[in-house]
Amino acid sequence: MSHRSGIIENDISAYLNAQAEKSFLRFITCGSVDDGKSTLIGRLLYDSKMIFEDQLAALENESKKHGTQGQNIDFALLVDGLAAEREQGITIDVAYRFFTTDKRKFIVADTPGHEQYTRNMATGASTADLAVLMIDARKGILTQTKRHSFIVSLLGIKNIVLAINKLDLVDFNQEIFEQINQEYREFASELGFDEIVSIPISALAGDNILENSENTPWYSGPTLMEHLETVEISSEQNDFFFRLPVQWVNRPNHEFRGFSGNISSGSVSVGDEIIALPSLRTSIVKSIIGTKGKKNSAETGEAITLCLVDEIDISRGDVIANVNDRPEVTDQFQAHIIWMHDDDMLPGRPYLFKTTNKTIEGVITELKYKVNVNSLEHESSKILKLNEVGLVNINLGEPIGFDAFNNNKVLGSFIIIDKFTNNTVACGMINFGLRRASNIHWQAVDVNKESRAKQKHQKPKVLWFTGLSGSGKSTIANLVEKKLHAMGNHTYLLDGDNVRHGLNKDLGFTDVDRVENIRRIGEVAHLMVDSGLIVLTAFISPFRAERQMVRKMMGDGEFIEIFVDTPLEVCEQRDIKGLYKKARAGQLKNFTGIDSSYEVPQIAEIHVNTVDNSANEVAEFIIGKLMA
């Protein structure tokens, strides 16, 4: 390194022991674009002597090539490692760096300030104990400053350093510092921070970073490094009840069966009584195996394998907890989510929800409100856009064991994944389980779907007609029903226009309303199939996700997707209702095929062409397919 410690050269074991005994702090730098976050971390690494000689030489060369400081060292280049970051002078990805001082060890995450990469900032904040919020003294508090502050508070960070940077560019003006400090504290008063420490700095020049600056004689507080070395971070996770999310069922042979994972909170000892969730089966800890073999106890953060006295059924995704202090179990809960994708969040659309050890299908059933990051006011909305934060209700396909995020970050957090692209679209923090989930139970009945279908001498199913407006869905579905009825089948036709006169008369044609429209029809069709009927539905149903959602409601072979494939230009020529003409004129918004997309089926069981065939020929073809 650029400096050497004598203890390293003379007694490496003593050095390693000394490092092991130091306390540990994870923190992030955040704020708006070009507030000096990367420069600050580079300065900390440089001044703490955590740079190797070859790194220093490379930094000097890179500063001349890509730097913004003339012939001087550009400290931001120590962490802006991507070529795109160096070319643009911004941070894009999260950069993690380790450094140590005589008093403490640190991992710092340099997070991007650009609004486009807010999702990366949330990733960096998710594991941090403290946030250094940077503010450019020339610009003051910006929208992104407020957004990052709100996200930091949501993610449970209670300790804030307000680093008011670039004071050298405003002549170290105390009034500017005090004004920004006061404005920020007024804004943050509702965010629940335990401590806000404001420090006037110049990251580039090093003022108040390691040593008190002569340029700020009016400031008597700690330097940034002094505060980072001495700040006390609460260890609530360690004091919380024992939780072990099971990552792996370890069974190398028939004589050994253990349950492996990282302890997310609390501690466990041999002889403790435990409970497995969601099965609610109990047992006693027979042995604990750590990284170095058997041990009598283990605590938060340790990777262990638990062996139990009883052979109870526990799988990956379950949670092992203390029997007297168990997590909640539910399939419905309320949570805050941060939407992190360009495609809007649509309530009712099925997504994948990934907890620490389990991936489950589910839906966001309701957006209660979104948060205005400037005023922290709650605003009504039907959707969330990129970087927006909202409070939602979520319904999962199966129950999970969880704690509120404020009590346990591991069991109280999740990410949301798009089912078709596998993109991570949001992260979430659970507030509480919904009481209605524990009050409602499925009522068993004696007459089931099989007996109802047997009485009708048919196999119930859904014939799901999908295609553009004007493709001929309703006409063909009507003909198919007539033919099935003539053959003695018991049927019912759900038509898009007809349903909007009653069940769905409250819905419009936005993407959100279209999703809810199909969700309701899917539930009705599911009930009709359960009654033993053959159900025909004629809806545009433009989105694959919702058609797949309805498919999953049905049993094997009960969902028959019929794609009525008619080109847009042909549909426009048939435009009996004049809808396309109005849409082209801008009089009809959110019209499928014009200003709202239609996603062509990829797995349709029946594919028909209405250009070369008459409606009756198509109907006969469908009947033939069904009989086959």
Q: How many whole angstroms does the radius of gyration measure?
A: 30 Å
Q: Please give the CATH class of the largest domain.
A: Alpha Beta
Q: Indicate the mean pLDDT.
A: 85
Measured as a percent range, the helix fraction is 25-40%
Question: CATH topology of the largest domain, anyone?
Answer: Rossmann fold
| Number of distinct beta strands | 28
How many strands, which pairing sense, and closed or not: the largest β-sheet?
Answer: 8 strands, antiparallel
**Based on the structure given, which CATH architecture of the largest domain is correct?**
3-Layer(aba) Sandwich
Basic shape: flat
The overall number of domains is 4
Strand content: 25-35%
Uncertain regions: pLDDT < 50 for 5+ in a row? 80-92
Task: Tell me the structural class.
Answer: alpha/beta
